[in-house]
Amino acid sequence: MRPLTIIGNWKMNGSLSANQQLIQAMLGLGLTDLAKSARLALCVPYPYLIQVADLLANSGIALGAQDVSDHPNGAYTGDVSANMLQELGCQYVIVGHSERRQYHHEGDGLVARKAKAALQANMTPIICVGETEEEHDDGKALVVVRRQLQAVLDLLQGQVASCVLAYEPVWAIGTGKVPTPAQAQDVHRELRLQLAKFDAEAASKVAILYGGSLKPDNAKDLLAMPDIDGGLVGGASLNAQDFLALCQAS
Ligand code: PEP
């Protein structure tokens, strides 16, 4: 039985005062209690990691970042290494988010190397895969996500059990459009079968999250699917009540 995993991705949002209010509201609504039975984390912008680590201390809610360098250190201006994130208390880091793939031209190989760097620093990479709207309309969703996952499997080999996967159809992110639960389940099952060819035990353990306009009103049906183990949540993680409702939805 895989525990429910709900991970918030604040993207490039927040301020010192807004973060404090948001986390205090989340804790005030009882998120700490939910963290006893579910795996919860917030992935926040780099400048706020120390502040949010402090606000989340002893809450049971883990801290995460939204990207990481594939290099351990050196002349990579503007980049942040896995050891730096780990030192600040991060347990998770998102890699391969579609906004990184799209706006920063990150390819499958780089995403795999970032996941490896995270694992080497004892963090859990949240590896995002998902097809664009055009690929979806062309019926290529499965081909695309299989290719994206294969690049990770080729590099990580036996380490996949220590990762989290997130299926995020690009056309659903921030758009209000969502696949039907059955459509999402088909992709999740396919990803798990692909993992199982590599490592059956890991496949049964790895959390595969759904992401893309996940909201309190659609979460129950999506999270009821057998291979959907939780959510990677953008917009709704910026609202304490919505985030709490998502954590209670399954
Ligand atoms: C995301 O960016 O990972 C995401 C799922 O965003 P949203 O929930 O806003 O669609």
Automatic annotation (TrEMBL):
Record localization: Cytoplasm
UniProt xrefs under InterPro entries: Aldolase_TIM (IPR013785), TIM_sf (IPR035990), TrioseP_Isoase_bac/euk (IPR022896), Triosephosphate_isomerase (IPR000652), Triosephosphate_isomerase_AS (IPR020861)
An example Gene Ontology CC term for this record: cytosol
Known catalytic reactions: D-glyceraldehyde 3-phosphate = dihydroxyacetone phosphate
Record keywords, A-Z: Cytoplasm, Gluconeogenesis, Glycolysis, Isomerase
Keyword Cytoplasm in record: yes
Alphabetical list of Pfam families matching this protein: TIM
Binding-site positions, substrate: 9-11, 174, 213, 234-235
Involved pathway(s): Carbohydrate metabolism; erythritol degradation; Carbohydrate biosynthesis; gluconeogenesis; Carbohydrate degradation; glycolysis; D-glyceraldehyde 3-phosphate from glycerone phosphate: step 1/1
Record-level Gene Ontology MF annotations: triose-phosphate isomerase activity
Classification via CDD domains: TIM
Domain of life: Bacteria
Active site positions, chain numbering: 97, 168
Entry keyword annotation includes Lipoprotein: no
Gene3D superfamilies for the chain: Aldolase class I
Enzyme type, top EC level: isomerase
Family per record: Belongs to the triosephosphate isomerase family.
NCBIfam families hit by this protein: tim (TIGR00419)
Subunit structure: Homodimer.
Role played: Involved in the gluconeogenesis. Catalyzes stereospecifically the conversion of dihydroxyacetone phosphate (DHAP) to D-glyceraldehyde-3-phosphate (G3P).
Name of the protein described by the UniProt record: Triosephosphate isomerase
Provenance organism: Polynucleobacter victoriensis
